[in-house]
Amino acid sequence: DQQVKQNSPSLSVQEGRISILNCDYTNSMFDYFLWYKKYPAEGPTFLISISSIKDKNEDGRFTVFLNKSAKHLSLHIVPSQPGDSAVYFCAASGESTGNQFYFGTGTSLTVIP
Amino acid sequence: NAGVMQNPRHLVRRRGQEARLRCSPMKGHSHVYWYRQLPEEGLKFMVYLQKENIIDESGMPKERFSAEFPKEGPSILRIQQVVRGDSAAYFCASSLLTGTGELFFGEGSRLTVL
Prior knowledge:
- The structure holds two protein chains of two kinds.
- By secondary structure, chain A is mainly beta.
- Chain A is built from no helices and eleven strands.
- In chain A, strands 2, 4, 5, 9, 10 and 11 form a six-stranded mixed sheet that branches.
- In chain A, a hairpin with a 4-residue loop joins strand 7 and strand 8.
- Chain A starts with a strand and ends with a strand.
- By secondary structure, chain B is an all-beta fold.
- In chain B, strands 2, 4, 5, 6, 9, 10 and 11 form a seven-stranded mixed sheet that branches.
- At the A-B interface, strand 4, strand 5, strand 9 and strand 10 of A face strand 4, strand 5 and strand 10 of B.
């Protein structure tokens, strides 16, 4: 029962262009969403988050957009850099869902120099 | 100012042996989560613990797996009678706040079952 889905296992983007990573969720009770970045043989590291009272949160080159009606969020990276090449996980949680963090299956981003 | 510490980083066990994975959360964090990442898959929730309490173990297999987070010392994920399918990376994460705070992850423990 995958409550958070990332339907694109991989994405390749030219350096300097925009990377858009997508995430869908099924549980309308989620009210907090996060993106994590993971390099091989390392643990995931927190990137950016958004609560359900907002529809956009920006931090430098990274922007997360939330569309609650569509149960969809996306991460935009502009401009993409080779060091952004990693696996990106989206995650969702909420006090009314037992405070678990539910993760998607990840999207492997490759930024081509 | 240490982060989440997991050990061992790599563990090799033969089928039928026991594996014990340890996790020390960040200082001040009382919420600990264990996740498993199988090859080519995402992070699967296993168990959520607070000090001396298992809050949610819905993601943990009913048999052979157990977890604890004692009042003193690290959280332990224990796998008895390991099988080849248990080979995976096991990640521990801790948080200060529940549900709406960040999760801070350790570097993971990679279990290989021969």
